[in-house]
Amino acid sequence: MDYSDVQPEARILIIDDSSTSIRLVSHFVRDMGTVHFATSGEMGLKMALDLQPDLILLDMEMPGMDGLDTCRRLKKQRVLENVPVIFITAHSGVDYEVAGFAAGAVDFIGKPLTEMIVRARVRTHLTLKRQGDLLREQAMRDGLTGIHNRRAFDERFLLECRRHRRNPESLGLALIDIDNFKAYNDLYGHQAGDACLREVAQVIDANVRRPGEFAARYGGEEFAVILPHCAGDEVQRFGAFLVSQIRVLALPHEASAAGVVTISVGVIAGKPVAEDAEQQFLSSADAALYRAKAAGRNCVRLAGRE
Ligand SMILES: [Mg+2]
What is the pLDDT of residue 1? Predict the structure, then answer.
Protein backbone atom coordinates (compact mmCIF):
# COMPACT_ATOMS: atom_id res chain seq x y z
CA MET A 1 0.00 0.00 0.00
CA ASP A 2 1.22 3.47 -0.84
CA TYR A 3 0.89 5.37 2.40
CA SER A 4 1.72 8.70 0.81
CA ASP A 5 -1.71 8.70 -0.83
CA VAL A 6 -3.45 8.36 2.49
CA GLN A 7 -1.81 11.33 4.14
CA PRO A 8 0.22 13.25 1.61
CA GLU A 9 1.17 16.14 3.84
CA ALA A 10 1.33 16.18 7.60
CA ARG A 11 -0.01 19.25 9.39
CA ILE A 12 2.16 20.37 12.28
CA LEU A 13 0.91 22.98 14.75
CA ILE A 14 3.35 24.84 16.99
CA ILE A 15 1.87 26.62 20.00
CA ASP A 16 4.41 28.88 21.69
CA ASP A 17 4.37 32.43 23.03
CA SER A 18 7.92 33.08 21.83
CA SER A 19 8.36 33.94 18.14
CA THR A 20 12.05 33.04 18.38
CA SER A 21 11.11 29.57 19.53
CA ILE A 22 8.48 29.22 16.79
CA ARG A 23 11.00 30.24 14.14
CA LEU A 24 13.56 27.76 15.39
CA VAL A 25 11.17 24.79 15.63
CA SER A 26 9.56 25.63 12.26
CA HIS A 27 13.01 25.59 10.71
CA PHE A 28 13.83 22.20 12.24
CA VAL A 29 10.70 20.51 10.88
CA ARG A 30 10.37 22.55 7.66
CA ASP A 31 10.35 19.53 5.31
CA MET A 32 8.24 17.21 7.47
CA GLY A 33 4.87 18.78 6.78
CA THR A 34 3.09 22.11 6.57
CA VAL A 35 3.85 24.13 9.67
CA HIS A 36 1.24 26.32 11.34
CA PHE A 37 1.66 28.27 14.55
CA ALA A 38 -0.25 30.00 17.32
CA THR A 39 1.20 32.32 19.96
CA SER A 40 -1.18 31.51 22.83
CA GLY A 41 -3.09 28.57 24.26
CA GLU A 42 -6.46 30.10 23.34
CA MET A 43 -5.39 30.70 19.76
CA GLY A 44 -3.82 27.24 19.56
CA LEU A 45 -7.00 25.53 20.70
CA LYS A 46 -9.05 27.40 18.11
CA MET A 47 -6.57 26.67 15.33
CA ALA A 48 -6.32 23.00 16.26
CA LEU A 49 -10.08 22.59 15.91
CA ASP A 50 -10.03 24.18 12.43
CA LEU A 51 -6.83 22.60 11.23
CA GLN A 52 -7.09 19.05 12.64
CA PRO A 53 -3.32 18.79 12.83
CA ASP A 54 -1.36 15.53 12.81
CA LEU A 55 0.97 16.73 15.54
CA ILE A 56 1.10 19.55 18.07
CA LEU A 57 4.31 20.95 19.54
CA LEU A 58 3.26 22.75 22.68
CA ASP A 59 5.26 25.14 24.81
CA MET A 60 4.77 24.32 28.47
CA GLU A 61 5.52 27.83 29.71
CA MET A 62 3.11 30.41 28.35
CA PRO A 63 1.38 33.37 30.02
CA GLY A 64 -2.39 33.04 30.45
CA MET A 65 -3.51 29.54 29.54
CA ASP A 66 -0.31 27.58 30.11
CA GLY A 67 0.82 24.47 28.26
CA LEU A 68 -0.67 21.97 30.70
CA ASP A 69 -4.04 23.67 30.67
CA THR A 70 -3.97 23.98 26.87
CA CYS A 71 -3.12 20.29 26.56
CA ARG A 72 -5.98 19.24 28.83
CA ARG A 73 -8.42 21.33 26.81
CA LEU A 74 -7.12 19.98 23.51
CA LYS A 75 -7.55 16.43 24.75
CA LYS A 76 -11.13 17.09 25.86
CA GLN A 77 -12.10 17.66 22.21
CA ARG A 78 -13.20 14.39 20.72
CA VAL A 79 -11.95 15.35 17.24
CA LEU A 80 -8.48 15.98 18.66
CA GLU A 81 -8.16 12.98 20.96
CA ASN A 82 -5.89 11.12 18.55
CA VAL A 83 -3.61 14.06 17.83
CA PRO A 84 -0.23 13.61 19.54
CA VAL A 85 0.96 16.51 21.68
CA ILE A 86 4.67 16.93 22.42
CA PHE A 87 5.65 19.34 25.16
CA ILE A 88 8.58 21.67 24.70
CA THR A 89 9.87 22.80 28.06
CA ALA A 90 12.78 24.43 29.82
CA HIS A 91 11.82 22.57 32.97
CA SER A 92 13.15 19.19 33.79
CA GLY A 93 12.18 16.81 36.51
CA VAL A 94 9.84 13.94 37.16
CA ASP A 95 6.99 16.14 38.43
CA TYR A 96 6.78 18.09 35.17
CA GLU A 97 6.87 14.97 33.07
CA VAL A 98 4.22 13.26 35.18
CA ALA A 99 1.96 16.33 34.94
CA GLY A 100 2.53 16.48 31.19
CA PHE A 101 1.67 12.84 30.58
CA ALA A 102 -1.35 13.16 32.86
CA ALA A 103 -2.54 16.10 30.74
CA GLY A 104 -2.41 13.83 27.67
CA ALA A 105 0.98 14.52 26.07
CA VAL A 106 2.89 11.71 24.34
CA ASP A 107 6.42 13.07 24.68
CA PHE A 108 8.76 15.81 25.89
CA ILE A 109 11.53 17.80 24.28
CA GLY A 110 13.79 19.70 26.64
CA LYS A 111 15.37 23.07 25.97
CA PRO A 112 17.84 24.00 24.63
CA LEU A 113 16.46 22.51 21.42
CA THR A 114 18.62 20.32 19.21
CA GLU A 115 17.63 19.82 15.58
CA MET A 116 18.29 16.09 15.57
CA ILE A 117 16.21 15.42 18.66
CA VAL A 118 13.28 17.56 17.54
CA ARG A 119 13.27 15.88 14.13
CA ALA A 120 13.53 12.36 15.59
CA ARG A 121 10.64 12.88 18.02
CA VAL A 122 8.46 14.54 15.40
CA ARG A 123 9.16 11.81 12.85
CA THR A 124 8.31 9.06 15.35
CA HIS A 125 5.01 10.57 16.38
CA LEU A 126 3.97 11.51 12.84
CA THR A 127 4.58 7.89 11.82
CA LEU A 128 2.56 6.55 14.75
CA LYS A 129 -0.25 8.99 13.99
CA ARG A 130 -0.34 7.93 10.34
CA GLN A 131 -0.43 4.24 11.29
CA GLY A 132 -3.17 4.91 13.84
CA ASP A 133 -5.21 6.83 11.25
CA LEU A 134 -4.92 3.89 8.85
CA LEU A 135 -6.02 1.39 11.48
CA ARG A 136 -8.94 3.54 12.53
CA GLU A 137 -9.95 3.96 8.89
CA GLN A 138 -9.70 0.19 8.27
CA ALA A 139 -11.75 -0.57 11.37
CA MET A 140 -14.57 1.43 9.79
CA ARG A 141 -14.47 -0.42 6.44
CA ASP A 142 -16.25 -3.58 5.39
CA GLY A 143 -13.59 -6.07 4.32
CA LEU A 144 -15.60 -7.58 1.47
CA THR A 145 -17.06 -4.53 -0.27
CA GLY A 146 -14.67 -1.79 0.82
CA ILE A 147 -17.49 0.58 1.77
CA HIS A 148 -18.15 1.65 5.37
CA ASN A 149 -19.22 -1.03 7.83
CA ARG A 150 -21.99 -1.23 10.40
CA ARG A 151 -19.85 0.30 13.11
CA ALA A 152 -19.08 3.34 10.98
CA PHE A 153 -22.77 3.61 10.10
CA ASP A 154 -23.88 3.52 13.74
CA GLU A 155 -21.44 6.30 14.65
CA ARG A 156 -22.35 8.48 11.71
CA PHE A 157 -26.08 7.97 12.04
CA LEU A 158 -26.02 8.96 15.71
CA LEU A 159 -24.03 12.07 14.78
CA GLU A 160 -26.42 13.05 11.97
CA CYS A 161 -29.48 12.49 14.17
CA ARG A 162 -28.01 14.81 16.79
CA ARG A 163 -27.07 17.39 14.17
CA HIS A 164 -30.54 17.34 12.61
CA ARG A 165 -32.12 17.53 16.06
CA ARG A 166 -30.15 20.64 17.03
CA ASN A 167 -31.34 22.64 14.02
CA PRO A 168 -34.44 20.68 13.14
CA GLU A 169 -34.18 19.58 9.55
CA SER A 170 -35.41 16.56 7.67
CA LEU A 171 -33.01 13.61 7.65
CA GLY A 172 -33.31 10.76 5.15
CA LEU A 173 -32.43 7.11 5.59
CA ALA A 174 -32.58 4.26 3.08
CA LEU A 175 -32.33 0.55 3.90
CA ILE A 176 -31.50 -1.60 0.90
CA ASP A 177 -31.76 -5.37 0.63
CA ILE A 178 -30.76 -7.63 -2.26
CA ASP A 179 -33.78 -9.67 -3.36
CA ASN A 180 -33.66 -13.48 -3.13
CA PHE A 181 -30.03 -13.39 -2.13
CA LYS A 182 -30.10 -16.75 -0.37
CA ALA A 183 -31.37 -18.34 -3.58
CA TYR A 184 -28.58 -16.55 -5.48
CA ASN A 185 -25.95 -18.06 -3.17
CA ASP A 186 -27.54 -21.51 -3.41
CA LEU A 187 -27.63 -21.35 -7.20
CA TYR A 188 -24.31 -19.67 -8.03
CA GLY A 189 -22.17 -20.35 -4.95
CA HIS A 190 -20.77 -18.08 -2.28
CA GLN A 191 -17.96 -16.66 -4.37
CA ALA A 192 -20.46 -15.39 -6.90
CA GLY A 193 -22.53 -14.15 -3.96
CA ASP A 194 -19.56 -12.14 -2.72
CA ALA A 195 -18.97 -10.70 -6.19
CA CYS A 196 -22.64 -9.73 -6.34
CA LEU A 197 -22.38 -7.95 -2.97
CA ARG A 198 -19.35 -6.04 -4.22
CA GLU A 199 -21.09 -4.94 -7.43
CA VAL A 200 -24.20 -3.78 -5.62
CA ALA A 201 -22.08 -1.94 -3.03
CA GLN A 202 -20.19 -0.19 -5.82
CA VAL A 203 -23.38 1.04 -7.47
CA ILE A 204 -24.71 2.32 -4.14
CA ASP A 205 -21.42 4.01 -3.29
CA ALA A 206 -21.20 5.62 -6.74
CA ASN A 207 -24.61 7.21 -6.19
CA VAL A 208 -23.69 8.65 -2.81
CA ARG A 209 -21.81 11.73 -3.83
CA ARG A 210 -23.37 14.77 -2.19
CA PRO A 211 -21.62 16.20 0.88
CA GLY A 212 -22.61 14.34 4.03
CA GLU A 213 -24.20 11.39 2.23
CA PHE A 214 -22.96 8.12 3.62
CA ALA A 215 -23.28 4.51 2.45
CA ALA A 216 -22.52 1.41 4.52
CA ARG A 217 -22.94 -2.33 4.49
CA TYR A 218 -25.50 -2.78 7.24
CA GLY A 219 -25.53 -6.56 7.49
CA GLY A 220 -25.34 -9.68 5.27
CA GLU A 221 -26.98 -8.49 2.04
CA GLU A 222 -28.32 -5.28 3.51
CA PHE A 223 -27.01 -1.75 2.95
CA ALA A 224 -27.88 1.61 4.46
CA VAL A 225 -27.56 5.15 3.13
CA ILE A 226 -27.80 8.34 5.20
CA LEU A 227 -29.14 11.34 3.27
CA PRO A 228 -28.76 14.60 5.22
CA HIS A 229 -31.23 17.46 4.67
CA CYS A 230 -33.53 15.27 2.61
CA ALA A 231 -37.34 15.26 2.53
CA GLY A 232 -39.54 12.24 1.84
CA ASP A 233 -39.92 12.84 -1.90
CA GLU A 234 -36.17 13.13 -2.42
CA VAL A 235 -35.42 10.02 -0.41
CA GLN A 236 -38.02 8.09 -2.36
CA ARG A 237 -36.57 9.31 -5.66
CA PHE A 238 -33.12 8.27 -4.48
CA GLY A 239 -34.43 4.79 -3.62
CA ALA A 240 -36.22 4.44 -6.95
CA PHE A 241 -33.08 5.49 -8.80
CA LEU A 242 -31.00 2.86 -6.97
CA VAL A 243 -33.57 0.19 -7.80
CA SER A 244 -33.28 1.07 -11.50
CA GLN A 245 -29.48 1.28 -11.36
CA ILE A 246 -29.21 -2.24 -9.93
CA ARG A 247 -31.69 -3.59 -12.47
CA VAL A 248 -29.66 -2.22 -15.39
CA LEU A 249 -26.54 -3.88 -13.98
CA ALA A 250 -28.30 -6.99 -15.33
CA LEU A 251 -26.52 -9.53 -13.14
CA PRO A 252 -28.20 -12.82 -14.09
CA HIS A 253 -30.34 -14.34 -11.33
CA GLU A 254 -32.27 -17.37 -12.61
CA ALA A 255 -34.01 -17.93 -9.29
CA SER A 256 -35.54 -14.46 -9.28
CA ALA A 257 -38.78 -13.39 -10.97
CA ALA A 258 -37.00 -10.54 -12.79
CA GLY A 259 -34.27 -12.88 -14.11
CA VAL A 260 -31.65 -10.41 -12.85
CA VAL A 261 -30.43 -9.26 -9.45
CA THR A 262 -32.75 -6.64 -7.96
CA ILE A 263 -33.03 -4.77 -4.68
CA SER A 264 -35.84 -3.64 -2.42
CA VAL A 265 -35.56 -0.33 -0.60
CA GLY A 266 -37.30 1.06 2.47
CA VAL A 267 -36.89 4.80 3.02
CA ILE A 268 -37.85 7.29 5.67
CA ALA A 269 -37.39 11.05 6.09
CA GLY A 270 -38.26 13.37 8.93
CA LYS A 271 -36.96 15.47 11.79
CA PRO A 272 -35.29 13.20 14.33
CA VAL A 273 -36.66 15.12 17.31
CA ALA A 274 -37.45 12.18 19.59
CA GLU A 275 -34.80 11.00 22.04
CA ASP A 276 -34.80 7.52 20.47
CA ALA A 277 -35.06 8.84 16.90
CA GLU A 278 -32.23 6.56 15.71
CA GLN A 279 -34.18 3.46 16.66
CA GLN A 280 -37.46 4.88 15.31
CA PHE A 281 -35.88 5.72 11.97
CA LEU A 282 -34.30 2.30 11.64
CA SER A 283 -37.41 0.36 12.54
CA SER A 284 -39.61 2.55 10.29
CA ALA A 285 -37.23 2.12 7.36
CA ASP A 286 -37.16 -1.60 8.08
CA ALA A 287 -40.97 -1.76 8.07
CA ALA A 288 -40.99 0.13 4.75
CA LEU A 289 -38.44 -2.34 3.37
CA TYR A 290 -40.70 -5.17 4.47
CA ARG A 291 -43.60 -3.57 2.55
CA ALA A 292 -41.39 -3.28 -0.55
CA LYS A 293 -40.70 -7.03 -0.27
CA ALA A 294 -44.38 -7.80 0.23
CA ALA A 295 -45.26 -5.68 -2.83
CA GLY A 296 -43.22 -8.04 -5.02
CA ARG A 297 -39.63 -6.73 -4.44
CA ASN A 298 -37.61 -4.66 -6.94
CA CYS A 299 -39.20 -1.44 -5.67
CA VAL A 300 -39.05 1.29 -3.02
CA ARG A 301 -41.50 2.13 -0.23
CA LEU A 302 -41.59 5.25 1.93
CA ALA A 303 -42.28 4.83 5.64
CA GLY A 304 -45.64 6.15 6.80
CA ARG A 305 -47.05 6.23 3.29
CA GLU A 306 -49.26 3.26 2.50
MG1 LIG B 1 7.13 30.17 26.53
Answer: 35
Which residues have a beta carbon within 5 Å of ligand 1, which is an ion? 17, 59, 61-62
Q: Quick one: fold of 3-139?
A: Rossmann fold (3.40.50)
Cα–Cα separations (whole angstroms), residue 297 to 6, 51, 251, 258, 288: 40, 47, 16, 10, 12
Separation of CA 38 and ligand 1 centre (Å): 12
Q: pLDDT (tens digit, 9 = 90+) per residue, 107-142? A: 999 999 999 999 999 999 999 999 999 999 999 999
What's the pLDDT score for residue 306?
Answer: 55
Residue 221: active-site member = yes
User: Which of 115, 221, 222, 306 is labelled catalytic?
Assistant: 221
**Ligand 1 centroid vs 61 CA: distance in angstroms?**
4
Sign, CA dihedral 163-164-168-169, equals positive
Going from the Cα of 141 to the center of ligand 1, the distance in angstroms, rounded, reads 42
Question: CATH for 150-302?
Answer: 3.30.70.270
The domain locations on the chain are: 3-139, 150-302
Centre of ligand 1 from the C-alpha of residue 51, in Å: 22
